[in-house]
Amino acid sequence: MSTNDPRLQTETLTLAYDKRVIVDRLDVRIADGSFTVIVGPNACGKSTLLKSLARVLKPRAGAVLLDGQAIASYPSKQVAKRLGMLPQSPVVPGGIVVEELVARGRFAHQKLLRQWSPEDEAAVAGAMRQTEVTDLADRFVDELSGGQRQRVWLAMALAQQTPILLLDEPTTFLDLSHQFEVLDLCADLHEQGRTIVAVLHDLNHACRYATELIVMKDGAVLAQGAPAEVMTEDLVERVFSMPCRVMNDPETDTPMVVPASRERRRAGSSRVSA
């Protein structure tokens, strides 16, 4: 591994479901210590890329490199100590309470001669406190609301205490207040030194929180860089087919995407059809 190489990157990565290629020969570098957000239209390959970075999806060709080696070459526990993943639609095990689910984030730290420890207890308690689910500790996970459940899954990922954290649409099911709470928490973790990679749909959330944007369309990266450099009106129209204005967010001075009026959007689609 070169000293200039990031801990997590892809090398001519090709991803497919059966015969349908989603991503073809993609080279992506995740900057160490960044809060990287992947954006793009539906079915462009965002979540597919994230799954491959987490070793959930095996590449058709090429490789995902973690600390200079193909991620497939590591034992599962070694990957789980370096990289945590919150999937888009995790499956809740039947009959499990919140504290038990969060505790599963510590599995990589267990050994034959080292089972549950005070360090594990502290990691679980801290993760639950950060995500504000401590008062749900004895509740069954499948009885929770979608937003509560999402925070519990995030707590499990935090309990894993990995330097790299991958989040696939972490604000799904959350109301506006809790969306910002989760993203604020991610920003805090980033400021504490973690590398965060998240898939988000909301461009304004992405621009407000990301230090680095990866903009995808049709399985390819169209742009990558700081939000202020990447997010332009031309890019939004090319990627999302949506006329807009990009201005400074008055609260954060980050790019803010304002969709064009209904009339201007209709006029734009009429010109495209013609």
TrEMBL record:
<keyword id="KW-0472">Membrane</keyword>
<dbReference type="InterPro" id="IPR003439">
    <property type="entry name" value="ABC_transporter-like_ATP-bd"/>
</dbReference>
<keyword id="KW-0408">Iron</keyword>
<dbReference type="Pfam" id="PF00005">
    <property type="entry name" value="ABC_tran"/>
</dbReference>
<keyword id="KW-1003">Cell membrane</keyword>
<keyword id="KW-0067">ATP-binding</keyword>
<dbReference type="InterPro" id="IPR027417">
    <property type="entry name" value="P-loop_NTPase"/>
</dbReference>
<keyword id="KW-0547">Nucleotide-binding</keyword>
<feature type="region of interest" description="Disordered">
    <location>
        <begin position="250"/>
        <end position="274"/>
    </location>
</feature>
<dbReference type="GO" id="GO:0005524">
    <property type="term" value="F:ATP binding"/>
</dbReference>
<dbReference type="InterPro" id="IPR003593">
    <property type="entry name" value="AAA+_ATPase"/>
</dbReference>
<keyword id="KW-0813">Transport</keyword>
<dbReference type="InterPro" id="IPR051535">
    <property type="entry name" value="Siderophore_ABC-ATPase"/>
</dbReference>
<feature type="domain" description="ABC transporter">
    <location>
        <begin position="8"/>
        <end position="243"/>
    </location>
</feature>
<dbReference type="InterPro" id="IPR017871">
    <property type="entry name" value="ABC_transporter-like_CS"/>
</dbReference>
<keyword id="KW-0406">Ion transport</keyword>
<keyword id="KW-0410">Iron transport</keyword>
<protein>
    <submittedName>
        <fullName>ABC transporter ATP-binding protein</fullName>
    </submittedName>
</protein>
